[in-house]
Amino acid sequence: MSNDIDVQAEIIGQLQQRLAAVPEFGDVVREGHVQTILDAEGDAEAEQLIVLQDGDTVEQERTPGGVKEAWTINVVAMSRRRGAGPALRTARLEIKRALRGLKAGVDVPGLIQVSFPPSAGQMPAPGRRWGFRVIPITFTYHQKL
Question: Which of 15, 50, 100, 128 has a C-alpha 20 to 30 A away from that of 22?
Answer without folding.
Answer: 128
